[in-house]
Design goal:
By secondary structure, this protein is of the alpha/beta class. It has one domain: Aconitase, domain 4 (Alpha-Beta Barrel), CATH 3.20.19.10. Strands 4-3-2-1-5-6-7 form a 7-stranded mixed sheet. Strand 5 and strand 6 form a beta hairpin. Helix 4 packs across helix 5 and helix 6 crosses helix 7. It is globular and about 40 Å long. The protein starts with a strand and ends with a helix.
């Protein structure tokens, strides 16, 4: 279970991870600057297992993978949105973060306690007591996510761990 960090529509990759920090790929550096321009307190206060909640077209903008990896390194468990930019959607999967699409993000408020049932496609809002359905991700995508992302998944498949 984790806290919901709710933002609006059209959250772009420059807001998720500002371009001025593209000089390092170190995980702690990426985590320290996640969402810095939108929510300066995010990186200091996010906890392992928290979720990001967005509106329409989450992750629009550039194709930079750091927008997804910065959230992973902060401990974000999932991103829930009405819709995703396709490149961000795939980058999230590649980093091991499930992108969950539901039209019902309005049923989640900033700070709500969220629990995810990925297998059955249910977001349990523990704060309001409401269950919000979503289409579960296909098993082959969940395999990638459960393995920690595409690179660890491929290493596991190829036996090169």
């Amino acid at each position: 279970m984790g806290r919901a960090w709710k933002y609006g529509d059209d959250i772009n990759t420059d807001v998720l991870y500002p371009g001025r920090y593209l000089d390092s790929y170190e995980s702690s550096y990426l985590a320290a600057h996640a969402l810095e321009d939108l929510d300066p307190d995010f990186a200091k206060n996010v906890k392992e297992g928290d979720v990001i909640v967005g509106g329409k077209y989450f992750g629009c903008g550039s194709s930079r993978e750091q927008a997804a990896s910065a959230l992973k390194y902060c401990g974000v468990k999932a991103v829930i949105a009405k819709s995703f930019a396709r490149i961000y959607y795939r980058n999230a999967i590649n980093m091991g973060i499930p992108p969950i699409e539901t039209p019902d993000v309005d049923k989640i408020n900033d700070g709500d306690e969220i629990e995810l049932d990925m297998e059955n496609g249910i977001i349990h809002n523990r704060t309001t007591g409401e269950d919000i359905p979503f289409n579960p991700l296909p098993p082959f995508i969940m395999e990638i996510i459960n393995d920690g992302g595409l690179v660890p998944h491929l290493k596991k498949k190829l036996g090169t761990d």
